[in-house]
Design a protein that fits this description.
The chain is of the alpha+beta class and 96 residues long. The protein has one domain. 27% of the residues lie in helices and 40% in strands. A five-stranded mixed sheet has the order 3-2-1-4-5.
Amino acid sequence: MSYWNYRVIRRYHEESETETFHIHEVYYSDDHNIEAWTASAIAPMGETLPELQEDIEFMAKAFEGPVLVEKSESGKEILVEFEEVIHEEKRQKRRY
């Protein structure tokens, strides 16, 4: 059974050399691999105040996991943990 949750995704903006963090829905396969994620950040919502509160509480759990970042691999966009990207960038700099 596949599932989804909210996760924090970091976006780097080259033109301004800034970064922003957003909450997205992330979808997983049965074997717990990330299959897809929303292109845009998600805003909390509910049809009632208690549902809105529940959605916000569910979103808050996104801060319990590692921050994710989009990375291009073999021409395909994937999500990886932000720390992996930092370590890869450091390795690349050491090579030069």
